[in-house]
Amino acid sequence: MEGRLRIAMIGTRGVPARYGGFETAVEEIGARLVEAGHEVRVYCRSGGERMREYRGMRLVHLPAVRHKVLETLSHTALSVGHLLGRRTDVALVFNAANSPLLPLVRAARIPVATHVDGLEWKRAKWNGTGRRYYLVAERLAVRWSDEIIADARGIQDYYRERYKTASVMIPYGAPVQEAVDEEVLRAAGYEPGRYHLVVARFEPENHVDLIVEGYTRSAATYPLVVVGSAPYAAEYTRGIERLAEADPRVTLTGGIWDQRLLDALYAGAATYLHGHSVGGTNPSLLRAMGAGAPVVAYDVNFNREVLGETGEFFADAASLAKAVEDAEADPARGRARGDAARERARTEYTWDDVAARYEALCRDLLAKR
Protein backbone atom coordinates (compact mmCIF):
# COMPACT_ATOMS: atom_id res chain seq x y z
CA MET A 1 0.00 0.00 0.00
CA GLU A 2 1.23 3.51 -0.81
CA GLY A 3 1.42 6.15 1.90
CA ARG A 4 -1.52 6.74 4.22
CA LEU A 5 -3.45 9.93 3.49
CA ARG A 6 -5.34 12.17 5.91
CA ILE A 7 -8.48 13.19 4.02
CA ALA A 8 -11.14 15.68 5.13
CA MET A 9 -14.66 15.61 3.63
CA ILE A 10 -16.46 18.95 4.03
CA GLY A 11 -19.70 20.64 3.02
CA THR A 12 -22.44 18.03 3.54
CA ARG A 13 -24.81 17.12 6.35
CA GLY A 14 -22.46 14.26 7.14
CA VAL A 15 -22.93 10.60 7.90
CA PRO A 16 -24.73 8.28 8.40
CA ALA A 17 -26.36 9.33 5.12
CA ARG A 18 -30.00 10.27 5.69
CA TYR A 19 -30.67 13.08 3.25
CA GLY A 20 -29.30 13.16 -0.27
CA GLY A 21 -26.70 12.29 -2.84
CA PHE A 22 -23.76 14.12 -1.32
CA GLU A 23 -24.24 12.39 2.01
CA THR A 24 -24.53 8.96 0.37
CA ALA A 25 -21.37 9.65 -1.61
CA VAL A 26 -19.44 10.74 1.48
CA GLU A 27 -20.49 7.60 3.37
CA GLU A 28 -19.73 5.13 0.59
CA ILE A 29 -16.50 6.78 -0.57
CA GLY A 30 -15.25 7.60 2.93
CA ALA A 31 -15.79 4.07 4.24
CA ARG A 32 -13.88 2.59 1.32
CA LEU A 33 -11.02 5.04 1.74
CA VAL A 34 -10.79 3.90 5.35
CA GLU A 35 -10.70 0.28 4.18
CA ALA A 36 -7.84 1.26 1.84
CA GLY A 37 -5.86 2.39 4.88
CA HIS A 38 -6.49 6.14 4.94
CA GLU A 39 -7.62 8.40 7.78
CA VAL A 40 -10.92 10.07 6.87
CA ARG A 41 -12.50 12.94 8.79
CA VAL A 42 -16.12 13.86 7.95
CA TYR A 43 -17.68 17.14 9.07
CA CYS A 44 -21.31 16.67 10.14
CA ARG A 45 -24.08 19.12 11.01
CA SER A 46 -25.05 18.81 14.64
CA GLY A 47 -28.17 16.74 15.27
CA GLY A 48 -29.65 14.42 17.85
CA GLU A 49 -27.12 11.63 17.30
CA ARG A 50 -23.42 12.48 17.68
CA MET A 51 -21.28 9.45 17.01
CA ARG A 52 -17.53 10.02 17.12
CA GLU A 53 -16.88 7.35 14.51
CA TYR A 54 -18.90 5.63 11.81
CA ARG A 55 -17.68 2.88 9.44
CA GLY A 56 -14.14 3.83 10.42
CA MET A 57 -14.56 7.52 9.57
CA ARG A 58 -13.88 10.09 12.28
CA LEU A 59 -16.85 12.42 12.68
CA VAL A 60 -16.73 16.08 13.70
CA HIS A 61 -20.10 17.60 14.64
CA LEU A 62 -20.53 21.36 14.27
CA PRO A 63 -23.64 23.60 14.25
CA ALA A 64 -25.24 25.44 11.32
CA VAL A 65 -27.67 28.30 10.88
CA ARG A 66 -31.02 26.69 10.01
CA HIS A 67 -31.81 28.78 6.95
CA LYS A 68 -31.89 27.67 3.33
CA VAL A 69 -29.38 30.36 2.28
CA LEU A 70 -27.01 30.23 5.25
CA GLU A 71 -27.13 26.61 6.41
CA THR A 72 -24.48 25.14 4.12
CA LEU A 73 -22.02 28.02 4.19
CA SER A 74 -22.26 28.61 7.95
CA HIS A 75 -21.49 24.99 8.72
CA THR A 76 -18.67 24.82 6.20
CA ALA A 77 -17.11 27.98 7.66
CA LEU A 78 -16.93 26.30 11.08
CA SER A 79 -15.64 23.12 9.46
CA VAL A 80 -12.84 24.98 7.70
CA GLY A 81 -11.93 26.69 10.98
CA HIS A 82 -11.62 23.27 12.62
CA LEU A 83 -9.73 21.89 9.61
CA LEU A 84 -7.03 24.55 9.79
CA GLY A 85 -5.94 23.29 13.20
CA ARG A 86 -5.60 19.66 12.12
CA ARG A 87 -3.01 17.88 10.02
CA THR A 88 -4.69 17.21 6.67
CA ASP A 89 -3.22 16.03 3.37
CA VAL A 90 -6.24 16.61 1.09
CA ALA A 91 -9.63 18.29 1.46
CA LEU A 92 -12.67 17.19 -0.55
CA VAL A 93 -15.29 19.96 -0.57
CA PHE A 94 -18.82 19.14 -1.68
CA ASN A 95 -21.03 21.85 -3.20
CA ALA A 96 -19.74 24.86 -5.15
CA ALA A 97 -21.68 27.10 -2.75
CA ASN A 98 -18.78 26.64 -0.32
CA SER A 99 -16.20 28.11 -2.71
CA PRO A 100 -15.78 31.49 -0.89
CA LEU A 101 -14.03 29.52 1.86
CA LEU A 102 -11.54 27.80 -0.43
CA PRO A 103 -8.80 30.49 -0.09
CA LEU A 104 -8.53 29.64 3.62
CA VAL A 105 -7.91 25.99 2.77
CA ARG A 106 -5.38 26.88 0.09
CA ALA A 107 -3.60 29.34 2.42
CA ALA A 108 -2.99 26.38 4.74
CA ARG A 109 -1.36 24.61 1.75
CA ILE A 110 -3.99 21.86 1.77
CA PRO A 111 -4.79 20.61 -1.76
CA VAL A 112 -8.53 20.87 -2.38
CA ALA A 113 -10.96 19.38 -4.90
CA THR A 114 -14.53 20.68 -5.16
CA HIS A 115 -17.40 18.43 -6.19
CA VAL A 116 -19.65 20.99 -7.84
CA ASP A 117 -22.91 18.97 -7.96
CA GLY A 118 -25.47 19.94 -10.61
CA LEU A 119 -26.64 23.30 -11.90
CA GLU A 120 -27.69 24.56 -8.49
CA TRP A 121 -28.52 28.07 -9.72
CA LYS A 122 -31.36 26.63 -11.79
CA ARG A 123 -33.22 25.38 -8.73
CA ALA A 124 -36.52 27.18 -8.28
CA LYS A 125 -36.05 27.58 -4.51
CA TRP A 126 -33.43 30.27 -5.14
CA ASN A 127 -34.55 33.83 -5.85
CA GLY A 128 -32.57 36.26 -7.99
CA THR A 129 -29.99 36.89 -5.29
CA GLY A 130 -29.54 33.19 -4.59
CA ARG A 131 -29.09 32.40 -8.28
CA ARG A 132 -26.54 35.16 -8.70
CA TYR A 133 -24.66 33.85 -5.67
CA TYR A 134 -24.47 30.34 -7.09
CA LEU A 135 -23.21 31.60 -10.44
CA VAL A 136 -20.49 33.59 -8.65
CA ALA A 137 -19.72 30.54 -6.49
CA GLU A 138 -19.23 28.40 -9.61
CA ARG A 139 -16.65 30.85 -10.94
CA LEU A 140 -14.86 30.96 -7.59
CA ALA A 141 -14.81 27.15 -7.40
CA VAL A 142 -13.09 27.06 -10.78
CA ARG A 143 -10.59 29.74 -9.72
CA TRP A 144 -9.72 28.45 -6.26
CA SER A 145 -10.00 24.65 -6.49
CA ASP A 146 -7.01 22.54 -7.38
CA GLU A 147 -9.45 20.25 -9.17
CA ILE A 148 -13.15 20.29 -10.09
CA ILE A 149 -15.13 17.05 -9.74
CA ALA A 150 -18.17 16.51 -11.99
CA ASP A 151 -20.45 13.51 -11.52
CA ALA A 152 -21.75 13.44 -15.11
CA ARG A 153 -20.47 14.20 -18.59
CA GLY A 154 -23.20 16.83 -18.89
CA ILE A 155 -21.70 18.70 -15.93
CA GLN A 156 -18.22 18.36 -17.46
CA ASP A 157 -19.54 19.85 -20.70
CA TYR A 158 -21.15 22.75 -18.83
CA TYR A 159 -17.92 23.72 -17.03
CA ARG A 160 -15.88 23.30 -20.20
CA GLU A 161 -18.21 25.48 -22.26
CA ARG A 162 -19.01 28.15 -19.65
CA TYR A 163 -15.70 28.43 -17.80
CA LYS A 164 -13.23 26.92 -20.28
CA THR A 165 -12.02 24.54 -17.56
CA ALA A 166 -11.43 20.82 -17.42
CA SER A 167 -12.79 18.63 -14.63
CA VAL A 168 -12.50 15.08 -13.34
CA MET A 169 -15.62 13.02 -14.02
CA ILE A 170 -16.43 10.64 -11.15
CA PRO A 171 -20.06 9.46 -10.94
CA TYR A 172 -21.92 8.04 -7.98
CA GLY A 173 -22.27 4.34 -7.32
CA ALA A 174 -25.41 2.21 -7.30
CA PRO A 175 -26.36 -0.43 -4.73
CA VAL A 176 -27.56 -3.58 -6.50
CA GLN A 177 -30.53 -5.68 -5.37
CA GLU A 178 -31.08 -9.06 -6.95
CA ALA A 179 -34.57 -9.73 -5.53
CA VAL A 180 -37.62 -8.06 -4.03
CA ASP A 181 -38.18 -8.35 -0.28
CA GLU A 182 -41.84 -9.25 -0.68
CA GLU A 183 -42.35 -9.89 3.03
CA VAL A 184 -41.36 -6.33 3.92
CA LEU A 185 -43.52 -4.89 1.13
CA ARG A 186 -46.63 -6.81 2.06
CA ALA A 187 -46.19 -6.03 5.76
CA ALA A 188 -46.25 -2.34 4.80
CA GLY A 189 -49.34 -2.80 2.62
CA TYR A 190 -47.77 -2.85 -0.86
CA GLU A 191 -48.27 -5.54 -3.50
CA PRO A 192 -45.03 -6.35 -5.37
CA GLY A 193 -45.14 -5.18 -8.99
CA ARG A 194 -48.45 -3.40 -8.56
CA TYR A 195 -47.62 0.22 -7.71
CA HIS A 196 -45.78 3.14 -9.28
CA LEU A 197 -43.09 4.87 -7.21
CA VAL A 198 -41.63 8.38 -6.82
CA VAL A 199 -38.79 9.14 -4.39
CA ALA A 200 -37.80 12.81 -4.38
CA ARG A 201 -37.52 16.00 -2.40
CA PHE A 202 -40.51 18.21 -3.14
CA GLU A 203 -38.80 20.88 -5.22
CA PRO A 204 -40.04 22.25 -8.58
CA GLU A 205 -37.03 21.04 -10.58
CA ASN A 206 -37.82 17.47 -9.44
CA HIS A 207 -41.24 17.70 -11.12
CA VAL A 208 -43.14 15.77 -8.46
CA ASP A 209 -46.21 17.89 -9.20
CA LEU A 210 -45.97 17.07 -12.91
CA ILE A 211 -45.69 13.34 -12.17
CA VAL A 212 -48.70 13.38 -9.84
CA GLU A 213 -50.71 15.44 -12.32
CA GLY A 214 -49.85 13.09 -15.18
CA TYR A 215 -50.72 10.06 -13.11
CA THR A 216 -54.12 11.51 -12.11
CA ARG A 217 -54.90 12.01 -15.80
CA SER A 218 -54.14 8.35 -16.54
CA ALA A 219 -56.37 5.30 -16.42
CA ALA A 220 -53.80 3.48 -14.25
CA THR A 221 -55.16 0.94 -11.79
CA TYR A 222 -51.98 0.54 -9.74
CA PRO A 223 -51.60 3.17 -6.98
CA LEU A 224 -48.95 5.91 -7.05
CA VAL A 225 -46.68 5.94 -3.98
CA VAL A 226 -44.86 9.25 -3.46
CA VAL A 227 -41.97 9.21 -0.96
CA GLY A 228 -40.44 12.52 0.08
CA SER A 229 -40.89 16.00 1.47
CA ALA A 230 -38.96 19.29 1.54
CA PRO A 231 -37.72 21.52 4.36
CA TYR A 232 -38.08 24.80 2.43
CA ALA A 233 -40.91 24.32 -0.08
CA ALA A 234 -44.20 24.62 1.82
CA GLU A 235 -46.18 26.22 -1.02
CA TYR A 236 -44.98 23.70 -3.59
CA THR A 237 -45.76 20.84 -1.19
CA ARG A 238 -49.31 22.13 -0.68
CA GLY A 239 -49.84 22.02 -4.44
CA ILE A 240 -48.83 18.37 -4.54
CA GLU A 241 -51.05 17.62 -1.56
CA ARG A 242 -54.05 19.18 -3.32
CA LEU A 243 -53.48 16.99 -6.38
CA ALA A 244 -53.17 13.90 -4.20
CA GLU A 245 -56.27 14.67 -2.13
CA ALA A 246 -58.35 14.72 -5.33
CA ASP A 247 -57.33 11.18 -6.33
CA PRO A 248 -57.56 8.24 -3.90
CA ARG A 249 -55.03 6.29 -5.98
CA VAL A 250 -52.24 8.63 -4.81
CA THR A 251 -50.47 8.10 -1.46
CA LEU A 252 -48.01 10.62 -0.01
CA THR A 253 -45.87 8.81 2.55
CA GLY A 254 -43.54 11.63 3.58
CA GLY A 255 -39.94 10.66 4.16
CA ILE A 256 -39.18 6.96 4.72
CA TRP A 257 -36.05 6.37 6.81
CA ASP A 258 -36.39 2.59 7.07
CA GLN A 259 -33.79 1.62 4.48
CA ARG A 260 -35.02 -1.97 4.23
CA LEU A 261 -38.53 -0.79 3.33
CA LEU A 262 -37.20 1.84 0.93
CA ASP A 263 -35.03 -0.74 -0.82
CA ALA A 264 -38.03 -3.06 -1.11
CA LEU A 265 -40.15 -0.26 -2.58
CA TYR A 266 -37.57 0.41 -5.30
CA ALA A 267 -37.24 -3.29 -6.16
CA GLY A 268 -40.96 -4.00 -6.20
CA ALA A 269 -42.16 -1.04 -8.28
CA ALA A 270 -44.00 -1.47 -11.57
CA THR A 271 -42.30 1.78 -12.59
CA TYR A 272 -39.98 4.22 -10.92
CA LEU A 273 -40.96 7.75 -12.03
CA HIS A 274 -37.96 10.10 -11.92
CA GLY A 275 -38.49 13.83 -12.38
CA HIS A 276 -35.09 15.29 -11.46
CA SER A 277 -33.83 17.76 -14.07
CA VAL A 278 -30.88 19.91 -12.88
CA GLY A 279 -28.52 17.50 -11.14
CA GLY A 280 -25.88 15.30 -12.65
CA THR A 281 -25.83 11.59 -11.85
CA ASN A 282 -28.73 11.26 -9.42
CA PRO A 283 -28.36 8.74 -6.56
CA SER A 284 -32.07 7.95 -6.37
CA LEU A 285 -32.09 7.10 -10.07
CA LEU A 286 -29.07 4.84 -9.59
CA ARG A 287 -30.73 3.14 -6.62
CA ALA A 288 -33.81 2.42 -8.73
CA MET A 289 -31.68 1.02 -11.54
CA GLY A 290 -29.70 -1.17 -9.16
CA ALA A 291 -32.96 -2.51 -7.77
CA GLY A 292 -34.15 -3.52 -11.24
CA ALA A 293 -37.00 -1.00 -11.39
CA PRO A 294 -38.29 -0.01 -14.85
CA VAL A 295 -37.50 3.73 -14.99
CA VAL A 296 -39.55 6.45 -16.65
CA ALA A 297 -37.52 9.66 -16.36
CA TYR A 298 -37.91 13.34 -17.16
CA ASP A 299 -36.34 13.95 -20.55
CA VAL A 300 -33.06 15.80 -19.91
CA ASN A 301 -29.51 14.96 -20.94
CA PHE A 302 -28.41 13.90 -17.43
CA ASN A 303 -31.09 11.21 -17.18
CA ARG A 304 -30.46 9.96 -20.71
CA GLU A 305 -26.74 9.74 -19.95
CA VAL A 306 -27.30 7.56 -16.88
CA LEU A 307 -30.07 5.34 -18.22
CA GLY A 308 -28.74 4.79 -21.73
CA GLU A 309 -31.00 2.43 -23.67
CA THR A 310 -32.72 1.11 -20.53
CA GLY A 311 -34.93 4.16 -19.89
CA GLU A 312 -38.19 5.60 -21.09
CA PHE A 313 -38.81 9.34 -20.88
CA PHE A 314 -41.58 11.88 -20.38
CA ALA A 315 -41.73 15.62 -21.01
CA ASP A 316 -45.25 16.52 -19.87
CA ALA A 317 -48.29 15.19 -18.03
CA ALA A 318 -49.72 13.49 -21.14
CA SER A 319 -46.57 11.47 -21.86
CA LEU A 320 -46.30 10.50 -18.18
CA ALA A 321 -49.90 9.27 -18.20
CA LYS A 322 -49.24 7.16 -21.31
CA ALA A 323 -46.07 5.70 -19.76
CA VAL A 324 -47.82 4.36 -16.66
CA GLU A 325 -50.69 2.97 -18.72
CA ASP A 326 -48.24 1.23 -21.07
CA ALA A 327 -46.35 -0.23 -18.11
CA GLU A 328 -49.50 -1.79 -16.69
CA ALA A 329 -50.50 -3.14 -20.10
CA ASP A 330 -47.13 -4.90 -20.66
CA PRO A 331 -45.46 -5.78 -17.35
CA ALA A 332 -43.07 -8.28 -19.01
CA ARG A 333 -41.52 -5.48 -21.05
CA GLY A 334 -41.08 -3.46 -17.88
CA ARG A 335 -39.32 -6.35 -16.13
CA ALA A 336 -36.93 -6.70 -19.07
CA ARG A 337 -36.10 -3.00 -18.94
CA GLY A 338 -35.54 -3.26 -15.19
CA ASP A 339 -33.17 -6.19 -15.61
CA ALA A 340 -31.20 -4.23 -18.22
CA ALA A 341 -31.04 -1.20 -15.91
CA ARG A 342 -29.73 -3.36 -13.04
CA GLU A 343 -26.99 -4.75 -15.27
CA ARG A 344 -26.02 -1.25 -16.39
CA ALA A 345 -25.80 -0.13 -12.77
CA ARG A 346 -23.72 -3.19 -11.88
CA THR A 347 -21.16 -2.55 -14.60
CA GLU A 348 -21.08 1.24 -14.97
CA TYR A 349 -21.78 2.60 -11.47
CA THR A 350 -19.94 0.72 -8.72
CA TRP A 351 -18.91 2.35 -5.43
CA ASP A 352 -15.64 0.43 -5.37
CA ASP A 353 -14.63 2.01 -8.68
CA VAL A 354 -15.84 5.45 -7.55
CA ALA A 355 -13.81 5.26 -4.34
CA ALA A 356 -10.71 4.08 -6.21
CA ARG A 357 -10.98 7.11 -8.49
CA TYR A 358 -11.29 9.43 -5.48
CA GLU A 359 -8.21 7.81 -3.94
CA ALA A 360 -6.24 8.33 -7.16
CA LEU A 361 -7.41 11.94 -7.31
CA CYS A 362 -6.28 12.57 -3.73
CA ARG A 363 -2.84 11.14 -4.46
CA ASP A 364 -2.55 13.27 -7.62
CA LEU A 365 -3.53 16.41 -5.70
CA LEU A 366 -0.95 15.79 -3.01
CA ALA A 367 1.76 15.00 -5.58
CA LYS A 368 1.09 18.25 -7.48
CA ARG A 369 1.13 20.33 -4.31
UniProtKB/TrEMBL annotation:
Gene3D superfamilies the record matches: Glycogen Phosphorylase B
UniProt keywords, alphabetically: Glycosyltransferase, Transferase
Limits of the Glycosyltransferase subfamily 4-like N-terminal domain: 20-163
InterPro entries: Glyco_trans_4-like_N
Any Pfam family matching the protein: Glyco_trans_4_4
Protein transport listed as a keyword: no
Highest taxon, organism lineage: Bacteria
Signal peptide: none
SUPFAM superfamilies according to UniProt: UDP-Glycosyltransferase/glycogen phosphorylase
A single MF term (Gene Ontology): glycosyltransferase activity
Name this polypeptide is given: Glycosyltransferase family 1 protein
